[in-house]
Automatic annotation (TrEMBL):
Pfam families: RXYLT1_C, RXYLT1_N. The lineage of its organism: Eukaryota, Metazoa, Chordata, Craniata, Vertebrata. Residues 200-389 form the RXYLT1 C-terminal domain. GO terms for biological process: protein O-linked glycosylation via mannose. This is RXLT1 xylosyltransferase.
Length: 394
């Protein structure tokens, strides 16, 4: 305040002392502030889009923390309200998540909104629908202009419920990014999105370390997971036991799925990824699973059972390599197999590999995964900007 007074009236001097130095300093501060404001303004002009992301499904954390490399305050994962922001491309993104983010109880600070929703089962769909109706109300009252949805889809790709909300079908949702090999992915307004890591179990953002790259690993492979009756996972366990290969691998099979990890079981799982050259990824309800991305995080090469699971997932008009079309299109350097009977030969080959070869493979995998996330981020930003920014044609 005194700066402004001093600048506005140079005769006025409350201290009766020689204030020239102070005045010069204050003038400099004033000019520096002006520069900063000008810079901020030009920066605001460059970020011509403001997008608010409402993270109402755990997959939002994969988008924000893993793909965008964004931070959240407070860092505490059980906080009721967490937020973060960053500039990317021509866009200023802010991200909100937590149980306290409830329709009508937070300020909508952007005209463009990305809703991250869970559509995996009927109860989740009912909750997701409430959010869509809230967004629709905001659209109708012109509080927001555009809506995109990132959807954790159903594992059998039963996502028909979202169709009426899409603009192409008379709704208001401009863009849809959906997990799994949904047949209605068209690369125009519907895009496939990666499942990512299990952020609902607080799987962390892993920074590659020297030892992750260069240390010998104690196990050829790992599989920690549920073995369902009459599934290919039973075949996998039998094959490993036959040749005593289970002694060379870290195998911990359980008969029932447990949604809540104990700290100990989670640490075990991370250790297994870090200590194995290969991570075995048998199909579950869907071929795509969190394990694939979690193995990549630790430089453990996924060995994927490349078979379609029952349901409505499959090829779309633009992709013809289901399952895992997105990963294949992006050139994922994984080992794809059609049957676990191929595993003994793969493990024999592993035994003969030198550490040097394994190091090269880990480098390639970690590099690929880093590029994959960067590519998904860029694609997401470009898609939003192309759809939400007024085009210059005209």
């Amino acid at each position: 305040f005194t700066d402004h007074v001093a600048l506005g009236n140079e005769e006025w001097n409350p201290w009766d002392a020689d204030e020239k130095n102070e005045l010069a300093a204050s003038q400099q501060r004033y000019e520096a502030n002006l520069k900063m404001i000008k810079y901020a303004r030009s920066h605001l002009e460059q970020t011509s889009l403001r997008v608010q992301i409402w993270g109402k499904a755990a997959i939002g954390l994969y988008l924000w923390q893993h793909i965008f490399g964004g931070h959240l305050e407070p860092a505490d994962v059980i906080a009721q309200w967490r937020e973060g922001s960053q500039n990317a491309g021509k866009t200023y993104f802010s991200f909100l998540t937590g149980p306290s983010v409830v329709p009508g109880y937070f300020s909508v600070e952007a005209e463009h909104v990305v809703l991250v929703l869970n559509g995996r089962e009927p109860a989740k769909v009912a909750y997701a629908t409430q959010w869509l109706h809230y967004a629709q109300t905001l659209m109708e009252s012109r509080k927001i202009q555009h809506v995109a949805v990132v959807l954790l889809g159903n594992e059998q790709c039963n996502n028909a419920w979202i169709q009426p909300y899409l603009k192409r079908n008379g709704g208001f949702v401009n863009l849809l990014f959906v997990t799994y090999d949904s047949a209605f992915v068209n690369e125009e307004d519907i895009f496939q999105w990666p499942l990512g890591v299990a952020t609902y179990r607080n799987f962390p953002v892993v920074e590659p370390s020297w030892s992750m790259l260069y240390d010998p690993r104690s196990y050829l492979c790992n599989f920690l997971g549920t073995v369902y009756k009459n599934s290919s996972r039973e075949t996998l366990i039998e094959i490993l036991k036959q040749d005593g290969l289970d002694k060379l691998c870290w195998i911990a099979a359980r008969e029932q799925w447990q949604p809540q990890e104990t700290n100990e079981s989670f640490k075990n799982y991370q250790d297994a990824l870090l200590q194995s050259d290969l991570t075995l990824c048998p199909v579950g309800i869907n071929t795509e699973c969190y394990r694939i991305y979690e193995a990549c995080s630790y430089g453990s090469l996924p060995v994927i059972e490349d078979v379609m699971t029952p349901g409505d997932c499959g090829n779309s008009s633009v992709y013809h390599s289901a399952p895992l079309q997105l990963l294949k299109t992006m050139g994922a350097p994984f080992i794809f197999i059609k049957n676990w009977k191929e595993l003994p030969a793969i493990l024999e080959k592993e035994k003969k590999m030198s550490l040097q070869e394994k190091i090269q493979r880990r480098k390639k995998l970690l590099e690929w995964y880093r590029n994959f996330k960067a590519w998904m981020r860029q694609k997401f930003i470009n898609t939003l900007e192309n759809s939400f920014l007024p085009s210059d044609k005209g």
